[in-house]
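INFO batch 0412 | record 1 of 1 | parsing
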Amino acid sequence: MTLLLTRNELEKVLDAQSVIQAVEQGCAEYSAGKAQVPIRTSLHGQDMPGTLLVMPCAMGETHVLGTKFAGVYPNNPARGLSTIEALYVLFDYETGASLAIMDANFMTGIRTAAASAVATRHLAREDATTLGIFGTGTQAEYHALLIPLVRPIKQIVIQGSSPEKALAFVERMKARLTVKISAARSLE
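INFO prediction complete | emitting tokens
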């Protein structure tokens, strides 16, 4: 029986440290040539107002097999929808049976920030205490939450596309963070 996992359910079962660890292991498998990650397939018909992306992956060492399906529809915000809507289907590595269908919007957000956390862990100065983030969207949110898990971040500075967006992001994130967060006064 295929399990259906919503964003709320994934938020309950996936902790950030475990995601960072899994992404780091996945990077190691990929670097060692133990993963198959073909170029994503893109489908964009003549009359389609968006694009469907299909991104399969098989990890040989950890026996993970799955595919992300993402619809990219630039006009969706005018409809009150996200530009990108995505699902992830996890299959049994040995049988191909579908195990789970998951909210890939959440998974993409946390996975991308986890990849940045892995890079930060290996490449950034160990004494880095300030994190600068450009943007106020989903990726900014997850980066603000995950990067402090790998460095002793004391303050986060947000640069948005407008001062209003940066200030709104800061207010939205204050309750979720244990570090100081502020909007940048200028791009410099």
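INFO post-check: Helices lie at 7-13, 16-31, 104-123, 138-146, 163-174.
INFO record closed
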